[in-house]
Write the structure tokens for this entry.
Amino acid sequence: MRRCIIIIPLMLSSIFKVYSQEQKSLSQLANAAYARQQYAEAGALYNRIARNKGKKMPVDQLMKMAHSYQEIGYYKEASDIYQEIISRPGHPAAAYFAYGEVLRQQEQYDAAKQQYALFTTSNADSIQLKNIALQGCDSAVVWLKQAAAVQLKPLKELNTYGSDLVSGVVKKGLLLMSNGYRSLSLNNGSEAHPATDKRTEQPYYKAYIYQQYAIGNANSYLEELAPALLGKYDYHIGPVCLSSGEDTLYATINIQKGVPVTGKGLVNGVRHLQIYQSVKKDGKWTTPVLMPGINMEGYSSSHAVLSADGDILYFVSDRPGGQGQTDIWYAEKQADGAWGAPVNCGSQVNTVAAETFPTVNEEGILYFSSRGYAGMGGYDIYRVKGAKTSWEVPQNMKLPFNSGADDIGLILKRNGYEGYLASNKPGGMGKDDIYFFSDADYFNRLNGNQPPQVVTEHNATPVTGGRPGLVEKKHTAEEETDKQQLEQLKFLYNYNSASLLVESRKILDQVAAVLKRHPNWRIVIASFADSRGSDQYNTDLSALRCYAVIDYLVNAGIDPKRLYYSNKGERDPVNGCKDGVPCKEDEYKQNRRTELQIKW
């Protein structure tokens, strides 16, 4: 039989620095690291004990070793150890539930149900979580048989071997939170040896901005967010939220209280998360200050996000008065601009487990991640209609947005069809990876509406009807030349993609300049797909290509009421590449295009 005690080479480096402390036994060192919640180091030390003691290793140390691996995402290794634990006489009942959890996170739902069923307890909250977990296993099996509505793709240009996630959208791009970019040479220099969090042996998080399609800049680029403002803090920074005017910043900052993090005591201080606020004055950010009334001494407050109108601040806290481990709370903006007293969002959203990472992508809708509902495993993403303490039933986002792993932070761009989330599911580059999706029918699908019929011409806002009473005018030679030049342009796309190529962004900067010179012009954006794929899929894909152009022009300052679109699908190929006709890739590419037509 394969041994269940596993050695993880990546963690052995954590052991070397403690060998010199020969006055302490490995057990003392492991227990001290575990008490400090330094799970990477504790797991490596318990692993060392396991190598020495084998089957004689005490069950309580095996439980701590398995839990340490579970905390840092080594679910397979943790499940092997729990399997060893439940084979021992006198093992704790909690091992069954913990074993079920790591099996569910690996999407082994039938095996997980068997372990949950064996778990017995007199604790009411634990019984509730057991029943929810069993329901989650049954639901996940059904959902896995259903086809996913959209496809998630890893965002390779932003993923690292660390943890990366999108925390918000700004006018020029995306707000990010990552511990994988710290060694990169960015605007604040690079760090050859960044400080690491002893819980995970990973660098501390920082906040970043990924600028996309910035006016006059055809290339996307990454930079640390306000390093002069946020670079002085020692521990985790993020997530960060900006107001709609991007003149007020709300940052979650990890603050150390008590013994320094480098201390060697049994309990190494308690690190709380606190929400800080900074205001931009005369183009410069003021020194961040603790938000009065929002933070509570001795408890964490984090993950601030604003409602669509900016009058409600949602955040996460473990303070008294909640439903479970961490809850979502809110505060309302007062007449004088201050924030009112925090209020719990209530049991319709919060559970006996943990809720985290609220996001607002639509007016009157809250997204969040939770471990307390019948989900697929780990943190699942939920969408719920309502506000403050009045909510409908949260909706599990199912596949592909959720998996057995931790799925967090669903963020939509302002165009309403491109989105991002983070997950530590298998197959990624690092601990948490950023995944991207495009869904032209996102809102209709979630709200249970029928998708609109395909027509030949749409307005981007949209509005209907023409322009009655339009008087024909005589056009200048400049107008005729500009019109002719714009209508000769073609933007090409990669296969199965709606992303604008670098050369397309450069051309669109010129298109925006022409439209600004002629403020009365309206423009039809017609997009096409090649013949591969179904007719409906290609119609949807061409719509996404129209939206990509519209999104860029709106960000360039063009009124969306001037922008119309026509999603042509695979109609009107420029060559003979039709259904059933094999073509070369370059021939297919000529049909993956967007064209422009001026409406005087």
